[in-house]
């Protein structure tokens, strides 16, 4: 990569860090130059105005987000594919599916927002900025729309009667988590887990609280395990 291209990339990454720290309004050429530790004139040389700089930075961000979302949901869809081979008519089966999906989705969004403090924070500042930069109006919801499409497909794959409406429930959980992330360094995992559970228990028509169903599934698994031991049939079932 040529020196000019490396400098341009450094400027874009510095821009994202500035947005994460200070929001869109605080992202100036001076702030970006200070963050990148380069001369102010170099920022202006590579980007003629602030709008072009912001658009380039956000394009890179959404490119990374699309790849991440695709990988995450492919794993979840693979999990659902295994579930779809099971007997959905048994309540315990639906409960176990709802429980495992709740665990998986909660872990995904929780670990993502804690593992990378830059990109998620940029997304949050773009989404919740009361007065977004006019140059970003056409791109600020791209990530949200792609996530919504995945959530609708997720609800379809778990045989939801109304995938669009049910996906809105899950989107609401993501928004709840995002707001939690803005307010504190470490959001409450249990609050998010319970909210995700309420969505999946509704979609899969499972009754009971997260704690109740967790205990129920544990008892069922233990009963099955004990039965295999009693029958001396544990290893033949593996």
From TrEMBL:
Residues 28-47 bind DNA. The keyword DNA-binding applies. It comes from the Bacteria. Residues 5-65 form the HTH tetR-type domain. Transmembrane segments: none annotated. It holds the Pfam family TetR_N. Keywords: DNA-binding. One of its GO terms (molecular function) is DNA binding. This is TetR family transcriptional regulator.
